[in-house]
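Exercise 7.
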Amino acid sequence: MHSPEVFYSDRGRNGAETKMKQQRHTVIRELLAKSSIASQDELRRKLAGRGFHVTQATLSRDIHELRLSKGPDGYSLSNGAEADEDSLPGIREVLQGFGLEVRQAANLLVVITTTGGAQPIAAGMDYEDWPEVVGTIAGDDTVLIICPDADRATQLKTRIEDYIG
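Solution. The predicted structure, written as tokens, is:
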């Protein structure tokens, strides 16, 4: 079975793509604040693990725009630009930026997103480690959230609707 991969380009950005880039930059800062990253390939793999599949060209632009420096220990943030945990976008910001609608079917939730918004939302849900979330599956514009039971799905649906607005 073919697993679709999404590659993001910054050319001709619309609002959703600009938000995606901002989210990606924030994740890069967070990754660098948490651990040493020796190469672009390692950074690309870590980004993919967080739901951001990018080309080498996009990653090079990100490194330039973020003014990352590379030393003997790998890439680092320049001039004390360490990521502050409070400045990182949470699931609320990701849902506000990409979420359109949420639907419930028993213990399952389906979040409809803007094009390209599903993977960041799923990664954000996984990162939050909420007890209402057993797991997520993301396509391009749809996230399936598996909850342990219908009651917790209803609770999570209400929370997501509040975040989406």
